[in-house]
Every structure is written in C-alpha cells, then in structure tokens.
UniProtKB/TrEMBL annotation:
Top-level taxon of the source organism: Bacteria
Name recorded for this polypeptide: Peptidoglycan synthetase
InterPro entries: MurE/MurF_N
C-alpha cells in the first residue's frame, strides 16, 4: 500500500519527506514488525524496536521525536479510529459474507467449526488480532463477529445470525451442564450443552454446513465447571460435588444466575465478585484480593462457586498453587 494512500485513508499528516513510498503490512506490536511494515505506535516507547525490526512507516497520535528520516512518520488524531479506517479500506476490496451473532452462538460456532475450514473467520473483540486474520482473507470468506458495532464500522454490508426458538423434544437434563434431546429426528445424546443454551447451540449447529464433531463441546467456555475436592485440588468432570464457574461477561450474569437458582436447588451456590456490583441478582461475597480467594473457598461451604471478576487463568493458577503446597507437605 502506498504511503500517500494511507495518509488519505486515515486523514493523517505526513511529518517528514521519507525516501520510501509504500508498506507491505500493518502491525501493532513492535516485536512482530518485519521489514516493510507499518507500525501503529500505541506505545511510543516501542518505536525504536519497530524501527530496528524494519518498519517502513510509523503511525502516531501524539508528539514524538522523528528517529529515522528515511521512513515515513504519519500523525493522526486517534490511532484506534485510524486502524478501523485502514481495515475497512482493506476489506472493501473483498466480496465477503459477514455476520454478527451473540456471544453464546459465537462460542458454539467457534467450537464446532472444522479447524481445517479456513473459509470461516471468527472475529473477536480485538482489532490487533483482526490484523492477523486480515492477511489471509479472500473473496467469499465468511466473517463472524461478536461485536455488532465493530462489524458495522468495518463492513457495513452484513447480516445477523438470529437465534431461533427450536421445538426440540425428549429433553433430558443429565446435569446442569449436559443435555440430551431430539430435533428433526436427530438425537443429541448427552452433549456438553446446558439446557439454558440449547437454542444457541442449534443455531450454531445448523449455521455450519460442514460435519460437526460434538466431542469438541467439552472445550466450550460456557458454564464450564472446574470440579474440585475439598482441598481445591482439580478432579475429573463429575468426580466431585464441588465445582467452580467463572464468568466475566456481564450480559450473561442474570441469565446464568437465574438458571442456577432454578436448576440447582439441591446444591448450595455461593457468588463471589472481585468488586461490588450494583443491582446484583444474588448475595455477593466480595473478594478484592485474589490471594485471599483460595482461603475463602476452602473455608466456605458450597457445591457451586460462581466467580465474577477474575479470569479463568487466574483461578487455575490459584488451584495449581494450592496443589503445589499440598505436594510439598
């Protein structure tokens, strides 16, 4: 792409008269810069590294010293808006099938789609990751977004994947995480889908025209339990009457908490938040320091601990730390 074209697209200001006139690719991480790339400098401290790696152009939205007059320096009002404009320009050259779906359906499509199917691109809420996908986009590709606002900005010609209310039959709820049911003479036997999300699952299932591997549903992050013993050692799925659920998507809280209250009356559920949540749907135990969380869990009586505000990785680290301590003893 020509430097002059980039300046026009982002409505930028050229700060010098470079000797180069084009770039090959767009990057936001200095360590991933290769010779000929445009570096979008979200952190100006990374600029020297980007230049060292071969950047042909630097895009900035703040004042900084020009370190190399051979490459292009372009200033814009807002880097995020400039990045959106650049991606939108690149996408406008392709004839694409672009869809939006809710987070739940997005998760099931992502899990069920064949890993060898490169035609379908899953677009999460991160422009930096989108740049990696952008390099491989071809005509007739299918792009699926979970952020409608972002989708509308990048590719206005799009459509929604709407969740239908399927008339499935013979529902058996083996656990709050597993279901069996029949739909259109197709029997789904004890799949890792809570009854709460069957409609979204079927929406994803029938959107994909390829063969699906239902065994992969165990990798879904939706209401995914971490089973533990009384010492918080992890155990296999279903091998304990204690489990932990982690959720950081605020749009799913009410739905999932209502589901647990209705379907898990026989067990004791506690709700833990990293900070106070206004108008919460249950009694919340506020644990602001994650280092105090594991001790709270050990001392608490519960069957289900629904945790909000900490990542899956943070919780797993806590469990691993506890296991290490027991091993040392």
């Amino acid at each position: 792409m020509k430097i002059s074209s980039i300046i026009d697209i982002v409505d930028g200001e050229k700060l010098n008269s470079p000797s180069i006139s084009y770039i090959y690719s767009i990057k936001t991480e200095a360590k991933k810069i290769k010779q000929g790339d445009l570096f979008i400098a979200k952190n100006i401290e990374d600029i020297p590294k980007a230049i060292e790696n071969g950047a042909f152009a630097i895009l900035i939205d703040t004042n900084t010293s020009i370190l190399d007059f051979e490459i292009a320096w372009i200033k814009v009002n807002n880097l995020q808006e400039a990045l959106i404009k650049l991606i939108r320009f690149k996408l406008s050259h392709f004839d694409l099938n672009v869809f939006y779906c809710d987070t739940i359906t997005f998760n099931y499509i992502q899990i069920l789609k064949n890993s060898l199917n490169t035609q379908i691109k899953m677009i999460e809420n991160c422009l930096d990751n989108f740049l990696l996908i952008l390099e491989d986009i071809e005509n007739e590709n299918i792009l699926i977004f979970e952020d409608k606002e972002l989708m509308d900005k990048l590719y206005p010609k799009n459509q929604d994947i709407k969740v239908s209310k399927f008339k499935y039959e013979n529902l058996v709820e083996h656990t709050i995480f597993e279901s069996s049911f029949t739909y259109k003479e197709l029997f789904f036997s004890k799949i890792r889908v809570p009854s709460l999300y069957i409609n979204e699952f079927l929406t994803a299932y029938y959107f994909l025209e390829e063969e699906k591997e239902l065994i992969k549903l165990k990798n879904s992050t939706l209401l995914k339990p971490i089973f533990v013993d009384r010492f918080l050692n992890q155990v296999e799925f279903g091998k304990s009457n204690k489990f932990i659920l982690i959720q950081n998507n605020s749009t799913l809280l009410e739905k999932e908490i209502t589901y647990l209250k209705k379907k898990y009356k026989y067990g004791k559920t506690i709700f833990i938040t990293s900070k106070y949540i206004n108008n919460f749907f249950a009694k919340q135990n506020i644990i602001e320091d994650i280092n105090k969380l594991k001790e709270f869990l050990i001392q608490s009586e519960f069957n289900a601990a629904y945790i909000i505000g900490y990542t899956n990785e943070e919780i797993l680290n806590i469990l691993d730390t506890k296991q290490t301590q027991l091993t040392l003893l």
